[in-house]
Design brief:
Length: 129
């Protein structure tokens, strides 16, 4: 009976140590993440958009390219493509990239494609990661 109680207490202490370790690790990572974001913001600009454009260059290009590819697959007319854009200081346009397109409202295939254009970045990331 006493070994059961000792084992139960040691298991509780072990579990508490694991939970406390994870909580501490999360707090440290959150602190480091906040400091890194602050450093990027102070280095590049006050709102961090330029920092996001620099650090997230590859992700932005892949994101916009996936929208473009989905538009082409579903036969949409692509009007404008900007795979990556560096916002100027005091710029109100915070877009880091864009793909503008139009589609035929009478085509069920193109209307269905509109949903896939929206979720294309998620599908591309799932496909290649």
């Amino acid at each position: 009976m006493s070994t059961l109680i000792v084992n139960l207490i040691s298991s509780c202490i072990y579990s508490a140590a694991i939970v406390i370790s994870f909580a501490f690790a999360i707090m440290v990572l959150r602190f480091l993440s906040h400091r890194a974001k602050l450093l990027l913001n102070l280095t590049f600009d006050e709102n961090g958009v330029r920092a996001q454009a620099i650090v997230g260059f590859l992700g932005i290009v892949v994101h916009e390219a996936s929208h473009y590819l989905a538009n082409k697959i579903f036969g949409h007319q692509v009007l404008k493509v900007i795979l990556w854009r560096m916002p100027k200081k005091n710029d109100n346009n915070l877009r880091l990239g864009e793909v503008d397109s139009s589609f035929d409202l009478n085509s069920t295939y193109q209307k269905l494609g509109n949903a896939f254009v929206g979720i294309a970045p998620i599908l591309v990331v799932q496909l290649f990661c």
